Amino acid sequence: MSATPHVVAIVPCHNEEGAIAKVVSDLHATLPGIDVYVYDNCSTDRTAQVAERAGAHVRHETEKGKGNVVRRAFADLDADVYLLIDGDDTYDVADAPGMIDTLLAGPYDHVLGVRKQVSETAYRSGHASGNKFFNSMVSFAFRREVSDMLSGYRVFSRRFVKSFPALSREFEIETELTIHAVNERVPQTEVQVGFRDRAEGTESKLRTYHDGFRILRIFSQLLFHERPFLITSIFSGILAALGLVFGLPVVVEYFQTGMVPRFPTAFLASALFILAGVFLLMGVLLNGQVKMRREASRLFYLRLPAPPFGAKSPRSSRLTDHTTTEDVA
User: Could you list the residue ranges that cross the membrane (predicted)?
Assistant: First the structure.
């Protein structure tokens, strides 16, 4: 393993002609020697040509959606460290060396860039409250505090990337990345990063309500997939409570009179209790399958090497070498 790890930047892009050149140039200036891969995702403008002229390796993903881009890039690229950043120039590239150094110093498998606005209009209306809502849901369901689950600025180790299934298609990929990290309990941390308005002349691809419902749907699917006993026990509890509501008066009446005059209500209460037991049993069985799947996933994860502990990002290495030379002189 070399002293300086191999770092690649993955930049998903859809019609970012007005911003991508600055993102690529800033990455090369901030992290000398980094390989920048711009994945053009069905753009109808000159995003690919501008990115290539700026010095990026340009690849094309014809399946539309950021999730498809990340899935393709994680499969294609082989490196020690992976930097994921959007191509709209809203994230401060100057924070990238610190994020990489944090990952290598841990060593961690995932460093999440928690967005800190540098302008009051950086967040679109409704996005901040929606992000807080999803953060609270993930933190409650998976018992791990998450501050910005929808951030698109992240750094990963090779073993995270190569053990991540990447099933999402569009903007819900951030939700899948976050839940994978907290559910697998990989070593991870958070770092504050600058977040600003989009460049003039560029347009956001986010649709607040449409994307919000997509994120809620994928969250629900992943929650049932990863925490089935939690979901089935909730339904079981609701059904049992309804069974008590309908059945308790029948039982009281039976002890008072020795008769059961309301047979339909008694049958309904019995059916609700039976369904509650079925849901509970289903949760136990599904939870056993989840445990076996997690064990297999963990064993595969352990086959991959950890990030090079104590290594430095390309930028940090260059500064260290420069300082040492001056000190010797």
Answer: 229-251, 263-286
Task: Say if residues 34 and 27 touch (Cβ distance below 8 Å).
Answer: yes
Q: Is 68 exposed, middle or buried (0-12, 13-18, 19+ CB in 10 A)?
A: buried
Query: CB-side exposure of 30: number of CA atoms within 13 Å?
Result: 20
State yes or no: cis peptide before 305, omega within 30 of 0: no
Could you read off the pLDDT of 281-324 as tens digits, one per residue? 999 999 999 999 889 989 999 999 888 877 777 776 655 554 43
What DSSP assignment string belongs to 53-115?
A: HTTPEEEE--S-SHHHHHHHHHHH---SEEEE--TTS-B-GGGHHHHHHHHHHTT-SEEEEEE
What is the edge-to-edge ordering of all strands in the sheet holding 110-117? Answer: 57-60, 35-40, 7-13, 81-84, 154-157, 110-117, 188-195
What is the rounded end-to-end Cα distance, in angstroms, of the chain?
Answer: 29
What is the 8-class DSSP label of residue 305? P
Residue 196 vs residues 51, 66, 172, 232: alpha-carbon distances, Å: 21, 20, 21, 42
Spatial separation of the C-alpha atoms in residues 175 and 180, rounded to whole Å: 8
* Rg for the chain, CA atoms, rounded: 25
Helices then strands, each counted (H, E), the chain: 11, 7
Judged against a pLDDT cut of 70, whether residue 48 lies above it is answered with yes
CATH 3.40.190.10 is the classification of domain 7-224: no
Q: What is the pLDDT of residue 201?
A: 59
Judge whether 87 and 11 are in contact, CB under 8 Å: yes
Listed by start position, the domains of the chain span 7-224
Distance CA 240, CA 258 (A): 24
Strand runs labelled E in 166-253: 188-195
Identify the CA nearest to 308 among candidates 112, 85, 159: 159
